[in-house]
């Protein structure tokens, strides 16, 4: 597996990856997703030796105090092979100097939430409330 930073993105390849994990709100406008990737602080990908995109992660950061992991996704066919772990560990090392390393995931009560929470906890991340913090955002409709 090859982990590398990328700055340009093929819409068909990105569509296939996001569609594989059921991220319908993203795949409705894949050109917008690709623009968001280009405008991110950092995008790293995981590819096999043939160049197939297995997963990616992107950050929004000031590279001093805050790193927000906007997305971490691995093609559904390749879950459980350590790809997500490698991507996240790469980001944790890269942004170790930042005070805040944050991400958002599904609530623990959702179908993917329980396994997502267990995955992030295994890597040493804890929920905001466990640090005496809260997170706020505007309501997002996910049809």
Characterization of the model:
The chain is α+β, with helices and mostly antiparallel strands and 143 residues long. 31% of the residues lie in helices and 22% in strands. The protein contains 5 helices and 5 strands; from the N terminus they run E-H-H-H-E-E-E-H-E-H. It has helices at residues 11-20, 24-27, 30-38, 83-94, 113-122; strands at 2-5, 42-47, 53-61, 66-74, 100-103. It has a 5-stranded mixed beta sheet with strand order 1-2-3-4-5, with helices on both faces. The mean pLDDT is 93.
* SS element count, helices: 5
Percent helix among the residues?
Answer: 25-40%
Computed CA radius of gyration, to the nearest angstrom: 15 Å
- Global structural class: alpha+beta
So what's the overall shape? globular
Along the chain, the helix and strand elements come as EHHHEEEHEH
Q: What's the rounded overall pLDDT mean?
A: 93
Sheet with most strands: 5 strands, mixed
Stretches with pLDDT under 50, minimum 5 residues: none
Strand content: 15-25%
In order across it, which strands form the biggest sheet?
A: 1-2-3-4-5
The count of strands amounts to 5
